[in-house]
Amino acid sequence: MSPFFVREDSSDDIAVIVADGYIDFDAAPTLKQNIVHQIDAGSRHLVIDLSAAEFIDSTAIGVLVGALKRLQESSGSLAVVCTNENICYIFDIAGLGDMIPLHRSRDDALSSLARVA
User: Fold this and answer.
1) Which CATH number does 5-108 carry?
2) Contact of 17 with 42, CB cutoff 8 Å
């Protein structure tokens, strides 16, 4: 099991949070804290980069859904970078495919949000 790691980057009006390793019950509060920090700092558009993530559980999915709702309240948006087929499958099983757009690269996610911003 890989340890969880989060890094924050900002690009114009869009904040990027990179999370890797196992994003589970133990790691979800840290992810949430980073998301809340970016939103409280004024970011209306957020990319969660999971391209280095190895696992995500329902707790972390709940954090992402909460982030989406909070961003939508301020006319913001959320995009997720996901290259791991198993993690993409979890999004599909949870019925989030239409709610949270998944992208194969950070550039694709940033481009999609730049059109909205």
Assistant:
1) 3.30.750.24
2) no
